[in-house]
Amino acid sequence: MRRAEFEVHDRALFEELLATCEFGTLSIIDGDEPYGVPLNFVWYEERICFHGAKEGRKMNAIAQNPKATYSVVKPLSLLPSYFSNTRSACPASQLYISVHFAGNVESVDEPHQKCAILNALMQKLQPEGGYDVIEANNPMYKKAIENIGICALHPQSISFKLKAGQNLTEERRNLLIEKLTERGEPLDLLSVKLIRQMNEKV
Q1: Parallel/antiparallel/unpaired status of strands 42-44 and 93-108
Q2: CA proximity to 59, closest of 107, 11, 121
Q3: Residue ranges of the domains in the chain?
Q4: Sheet containing 42-44: order of strands
Q5: Tens of pLDDT along 58-100?
Q6: What sign does the dihedral 55-61-63-68 (CA atoms) show?
Q7: pLDDT tens digit string along 99-113?
Q8: How far is residue 67 from each of residues 27, 105, 117, 160, measured CA to CA in Å?
Q9: Taking the model in full, what pTM does it have?
Q10: How many CA atoms lie within 13 Å of 39's alpha carbon, on the beta-carbon side?
Q11: Residue 166 and residue 6: Cα distance in Å, rounded?
Q12: Phi/psi of residue 181, nearest 5 degrees
C-alpha cells in the first residue's frame, strides 16, 4: 500500500465492514478485456462468496482465468474544502473504509456447501428471518440449488484501508472533528469516532 498510514489491522473493524456492506466489485479478465461486476457477497470461512447464473460472461471468464480481485468500500464523510478554512478547492476530500482482496475464484459445486453459503448470505441480508432454511433435500430448493452457480474467492492478499485523518496534524485533525461534529450527520459522528480511534493508535 502506497500510503502506509492508512493501512489498518483491526480485525473487529474488518469483520464489521464485511458484515454491513452489501455489495462489492469483482474484477476479472475476459479475454483481453478487464471486466468489473458489482455483486452482493458474504464473507464465509475466510472467503468472499457470491452467487449467480451458472452460464454467462462472468462464469465463462472465471473458467478461463480464475485470477480475480474483489473490492468493498464503505464511504464515510465528505469533506468540503471550506472545512479547512480556505477558499482553495484542494482540501476537498472524503473519508472511507475499504478492503481489497486478490486471489483465485473457484466454483463451489457440492450441494451442502452451496446451501451453507446461501444460508450465510441470507442471514446477512435478511437477518429477521421469515424464510425456510435452505437445505439440499428440501423439495422447495432442490432445483434452485442444482441450477445456481456459487463461487468463492480465496484471498492470496488482503489490503485493508481506513482514511480517517491519520495524515493530518493534530491541529487540522481537531478542526476536522469540530466541523464534522457541528454538521452532525450520522455518518459524520461515525467518522469522528473512527478519527479518534485511529488517533489513539498513532
Answers
A1: unpaired
A2: 107
A3: 4-201
A4: 33-40, 23-30, 67-79, 93-108, 148-163, 47-53, 42-44
A5: 999 999 999 999 999 999 999 999 998 889 999 999 999 999 9
A6: negative
A7: 999 999 999 999 999
A8: 9, 6, 21, 19
A9: 0.91
A10: 25
A11: 7
A12: -65, -40
CATH architecture of 4-201: Roll (2.30)
For residue 85, the one-letter residue type is: N
Mean pLDDT (the chain, rounded): 94
Mean pLDDT of 27-49: 96
Radius of gyration of the CA atoms of the chain, in A: 20
Joined together, the cell numbers standing for residue 122 give: 441470507
User: Which 3 state secondary structure label does DSSP give 27?
Assistant: strand
Ranges of H-type helices in the chain:
11-20, 57-64, 111-125, 139-147, 170-183, 186-201
- Structural contact between residues 146 and 92, judged by C-beta atoms closer than 8 angstroms: no
Burial of 68 (0-12, 13-18, 19+ CB in 10 A): buried
Q: Name the DSSP letter for residue 127.
A: T
- Sign of the dihedral defined by the CA atoms of residues 25, 31, 32, 33, in that order: negative
How far is 84 from 82, CA to CA, in rounded Å? 5
CA angle 58, 131, 40 (to 5 degrees): 25
Choose among 46, 187, 40: nearest CA to 124: 40
